[in-house]
Amino acid sequence: MDIKKIIQEQELYNFPIGLCNDKISDPNFESREYDLVVFDGKSESSKIVNYDNEYVIIHHASLTETQSKKLLLYDNLQIIQDESWELRMLLSKINEKRISLYNDFAKNCLIESMFCCQQTRESIEISNVFAPCWQKCASYFLADAICSLNHKKPNPFHMLYLLRNFDQNLINKNIPIATQTVGIERATPTLLDRMLKSTIGFSNLIEKNNHHEIIQKKHDFFIKNSMLSDCYFYLGYVNKKNFVKVKNTLNLEGGLIHILKIAFDVEADSHLLIQNVDLIQNSCKTMLEMFSRY
Length: 294
Prior knowledge:
This protein is α+β, with helices and mostly antiparallel strands. It has helices at about 5-10, 70, 85-95, 100-125, 130-150, 160-165, 175-180, 190-205, 210-225, 230-245, 255-265, 270-290, and strands spanning about 15-20, 35-40, 45-50, 55-60, 80. Strands 3-4-2-1-5 form a five-stranded mixed beta sheet, with no helix packed on it. Helix 5 crosses helix 10 (about 230-245), helix 5 (about 130-150) packs parallel to helix 12 and helix 8 runs parallel beside helix 10.
């Protein structure tokens, strides 16, 4: 991949730029896309371009960013161009605060998970159709928190692999709660094919870029390697990210439930939803109590 050529073609040569350099030890994971972070201060959505069958995701960022969630995305960033040295200084600050940033992000994820649990309960009480979607999001936020407390950036493609291989400790004993309430045991090739089509549809509706091509390729990789649970987790996580983007306008988007029922593989049994919410909330509360001791 000729990154310099891409920078020229996209006219990005006036800004500090970094390349995400996340590696996974398992050689079976072969990522075919590159995350290019352009520090131009813009708030535009990510752009996806295809170069010779490989994808480049162009993210926009700010050198004055303060949110731990975004700063962690730049952890281990490989500098491509930085004439002013401003990006080097930012990365140095991130490295100094790395552990505290991961802890802050984890705490925020736990709070988000509990918020989603409450939304699930309230939605059940008023027979709101989005109740199971909120519960799925609660599970994924719990998984995000666990990854962050293990000092790993949540990455939906590698995430279930990471969760399986974390050391046993008080934090990681909550991993089965996250995976169980996501529903990975339900994965079958037929179900995943249906989830894929709806996930792509939801992505096209919300993201309006070429992400659907990457989603398709990753689904195909998982299926080819008989990684059904990983595929289920991945598709659900993609939907969680897009669901969160429209969470404040759900009442204006009633038609979304028809696509989300399949994309999220939702559970219609309200009693089971409450059981899942109880499990998730207990895990979140236990982990938040750990923060209060330090």
